[in-house]
Amino acid sequence: xxxxxxxxxxxxxxxxxxxxxxxxxxxxxxxxxxxxxxxxxxxxxxxxxxxxxxxxxxxxxxxxxxxxxxxxxxxxxxxxxxxxxxxxxxxxxxxxxxxxxxxxxxxxxxxxxxxxxxxxxxxxxxxxxxxxxxxxxxxxxxxxxxxxxxxxxxxxxxxxxxxxxxxxxxxxxxxxxxxxxxxxxxxxxxxxxxxxxxxxxxxxxxxxxxxxxxxxxxxxxxxxxxxxxxxxxxxxxxxxxxxxxxxxxxxxxxxxxxxxxxxxxxxxxxxxxxxxxxxxxxxxxxxxxxxxxxxxxxxxxxxxxxxxxxxxxxxxxxxxxxxxxxxxxxxxxxxxxxxxxxxxxxxxxxxxxxxxxxxxxxxxxxx
Length: 367
Ligand SMILES: Cc1cc2nc3c(=O)[nH]c(=O)nc-3n(C[C@H](O)[C@H](O)[C@H](O)COP(=O)(O)OP(=O)(O)OC[C@H]3O[C@@H](n4cnc5c(N)ncnc54)[C@H](O)[C@@H]3O)c2cc1C
What we know:
alpha/beta, 6-stranded mixed sheet, 10 helices, binds flavin-adenine dinucleotide
């Protein structure tokens, strides 16, 4: 059985951020079930992320990666008139339209460069207490292996594989938001360049944004029971449906958008009731998965990955309350998010009787 100071489950942005901040001081093993980054749709990163990259000593390297600048958001929400929110007066400058697969690979490499030991592909399978340490079982290509460690950080995404084994419960107020998406190419037009566009409709909301490499993502966020089977995973059908919208349809037309891939994915928010305990921490989506309307997921993954690394380091140097303090910070994030997302959904009143919007009002009362 191998021994490590910290075992991190999941090498997405949260796991990589935790690993790269701990690895210079500690022996860190980073367990990831996929050998290569998952193909993801493009995602937007807000300007304030610049500060986290600077804190982690990665800003110059990140800027050199050449992700597309994001200058703001156009939305048709609560009114038929498009409203533009730009980052011109933002002290942090512009945000970014990321190539997610390339972003994840880059962060993983940064963690390994700083000394983290990758165990990939290796799937976390089981965890049990052994005195003051954990015995963590993983399944690699050549069979099962065991790791002994005093601290486990669960960065395994919204399923929170380790934290849930340890008894933490997911809470989601009955949410069933899903995302039907199409990733494709754009051949012309600059109408949507540098901006994310959001448009509310009776059954949910549409989203489109450019992705590096003259690509574009188109997505419909709605509830699982409202999506209609024909849209699930069919990029071309999604594009046809988007043509009926007043902002996004003309933009797709102008960009000569062609869907190359399509999919359906869960997008509802979920929270763990406890995101730390003796010798364990959950970070990133494992701690809080955000409704993508908030554009907060990646920022939280980086922030909580860094905070989890700091908490683990303090815990290992003999501060028993470090993991508890971490949990209080994450609970604070959750309460601010919950009130803001509810308030934002409440500003759309044009389809007050439609199930999608009615459910958002009821959920707001549950928080
Ligand atoms: C449709 C959609 C659109 C979004 N758009 C945006 C956006 O525009 N901006 C934004 O900021 N956020 C967005 N998000 C949220 C963002 O994608 C997540 O918040 C982010 O990926 C969280 O990072 P993470 O590292 O916590 O988890 P993940 O990226 O999910 O990484 C978890 C890792 O753990 C690994 N893993 C899981 N289980 C195991 C196991 N048992 N053993 C080993 N490894 C395991 C996985 O393979 C994966 O690599 C969006 C989310 C969705 C669903």
